[in-house]
Write a structure and sequence with these properties.
Length: about 170
C-alpha cells in the first residue's frame, strides 16, 4: 500500500513556488467571478454592475488603508500611489510599469489577466468600470485621509480596443 504525503518539502520538489504562485493567482481571479455567479444565482434580480462597483469600492478602501501605512506624507503623493499600484499589479502577475513624465505619474498595463478573465466570463463590459472605480476610490480615500489633492484619469484602456491601459496621476 502506498501513502501519498503532502508535506511542504515533498510538494516543493514536484510543485515549485512559481508554479504554485501562478496557480494561486488563477484561483484568486476565478473566485472573483464565482462570487458574482453565486450572488446572481441567489438573487437573479441583482444588478451585477452595481455589485461589481461596490466590490471594487470595498477593495479600494482596503488598498488605500494599506498604502496609507507606507506613504511618505511629506513627499508628493501622486508618484508614490502610482508606484505602489505598479508594485501591487506586478505582484499579482500583471504586466505593469511606472512612467514618470514631469509632475505626472503614469501606471501603464501592457496586458492584464483581469481583462482576459472578464472576456471569458462574458463580463467584458464590467472590466474598465471596475478598474476605474478602484483607481478613483483608492485616490479618493487617500486624499480624504491626508487632505491630498491627487487626481487620476484613464487615458486609454484595453477594453476600449487600445493596446494598453494607462492611468495618469497628478497633484
Amino acid at each position: 500500500m502506498s501513502v501519498e504525503t503532502n508535506k511542504q518539502e515533498d510538494l516543493a520538489k514536484t510543485f515549485p513556488n512559481e508554479a504554485r504562485y501562478k496557480l494561486l493567482l488563477k484561483i484568486h481571479r476565478a473566485s472573483h467571478f464565482e462570487w458574482i455567479r453565486t450572488v446572481k444565482r441567489l438573487d437573479p434580480t441583482c444588478d451585477v454592475s452595481r455589485l461589481v462597483l461596490t466590490y471594487w469600492d470595498e477593495v479600494a478602501k482596503d488598498t488605500a488603508e494599506s498604502y496609507l501605512k507606507i506613504l511618505n506624507r511629506d513627499a508628493p503623493l501622486a508618484s508614490q500611489i502610482a508606484s505602489l499600484i505598479v508594485k501591487s499589479s506586478v505582484a499579482m502577475g500583471e504586466d505593469a510599469s511606472l512612467i514618470l513624465e514631469g509632475q505626472k505619474a503614469i501606471v501603464h498595463h501592457s496586458a492584464c489577466p483581469w481583462w482576459d478573465w472578464h472576456q471569458k466570463a462574458g463580463l467584458a463590459h464590467l472590466d474598465k468600470i471596475g478598474c476605474d472605480t478602484w483607481f478613483t476610490k483608492v485616490v479618493l480615500y487617500i486624499n480624504s485621509a491626508l487632505d491630498g489633492k491627487v487626481s487620476v484619469t484613464t487615458e486609454c484602456a484595453l477594453p476600449d480596443g487600445e493596446s494598453c491601459c494607462r492611468r495618469v496621476f497628478w497633484e
